[in-house]
Amino acid sequence: MPRDPLIGIVGKPSSGKSTTLNALTDADAKVGAFPFTTIDPNKATGYLQVECACSRFGKEELCKPNYGWCKAGKRFVPIMLLDVAGLVPGAHEGKGLGNKFLDDLRHADALIHVVDVSGTTNAEGKATRGYDPLQDIEWLQDEIRRWIEGNLLKRWGSIVRRHTATKSLVVDTMQAQFAGYGATGQLVARAMERVSDLPPLQDWDNECITKVVKAFMAEKFPTVLSLNKIDHPDADKNVSKIMLKHPNTKAVLTSAITEVFLRKLSKQKFVVYDEGTEFVDTLEDLGPESGLKPLDEKLLNRIENIRDLVLYRFGSTGVAQVLKEAAAVLDLIPVYTVRNMTTFTGNSGTNVFRDCTLIKRGTQVGQVARHIMGEVTVASIEGVGGKRVSADDSIDVGKNDILSFRLAHSGGTTMNF
Ligand SMILES: Nc1nc2c(ncn2[C@@H]2O[C@H](COP(=O)(O)OP(=O)(O)O)[C@@H](O)[C@H]2O)c(=O)[nH]1
Ligand SMILES: [Mg+2]
Question: Mind telling me which GO cellular component terms the entry cites (predicted)?
């Protein structure tokens, strides 16, 4: 069974990783028990916002997910995040706890690179002014590349000897080398397709190796930039510099500190804040029947500033969006498994769409079954409207994304899932 997707949060010290993680993992009391089987201290559950299937059928009122929650058709689906703290320049040589950091990174499927675009922290994360954050983007890519290259070059002699002695295919040799990064054979094959005109492996020079490693990184660590601290006055010019230099890199403008602040005020009933949007309302806006507490002048000014500098300018704090982009680079879509295709309920009760799993678009329905239930024999698969779905049909948003699996029982009878 493939693992649950894991998104690594990376960046130099003081770029805002912890603040971002706090904002992404801060959940309502409504959240169910932890859905993931393995949990270690640097992993945390984030919540990805998706449009819930309940809204397609006008069943928002009955939607009560087993994990995460659903608010008027906007569903918050748990997704695992990895806090990769402690990455400092020179990590690939073991600086700081560099090797430990890079080891953690192996398990990540995509990265959110938090970049401090205020220019107020230097390469090590120490306070400064006028620092150019473009350097941080190149640095991170370099750090990862040099780590992978270092591991490869250490063994290069024996890799080449084995490759020629066994007359292996280049893709097989490289698959064996990259398997340690948690890469599947398919992923390595895709990476190798990105590089053309390579000489035979025994003739590769360092330049060839760099090319191959870069191609591998593009597949293994697709990255979304979180251009953070956009509330700072110097952010604008740095953001445009980065966008011009990296036009093809996914980037979201964020103010993690604003997101954390608004959520705190919302919990304390000073404001109504709709996460991921530009809407924040105070007692002044909504009147006494809102039940909101009054804000003092200082806080009111701060909210006014947040609206002007962040919310109205950029449309939101960007924190929810950055997670959406990370899920989008992995092409993850929500798939709902139900027991009853007429009511969309589960094993008991009247609540709908209780189970939702994030799976790559285009995955075959049979693989979806294995992903969710392990190695089971599926007797039949039903889609919306009671339609029979074939195991080799693929999934997409609105297509085979609501499924009911009927399992073949070992005794010969069937069992509903
Ligand atoms: N102005 C501003 N400061 C931020 C923002 N996000 C984080 N910070 C501040 O940057 C500093 C480092 O943040 P932290 O999350 O601890 O960074 P980490 O070392 O990457 O985990 C803290 O003082 C935060 O309050 C932001 O969006 N805007
Ligand atoms: Mg931190």
Answer: cytoplasm
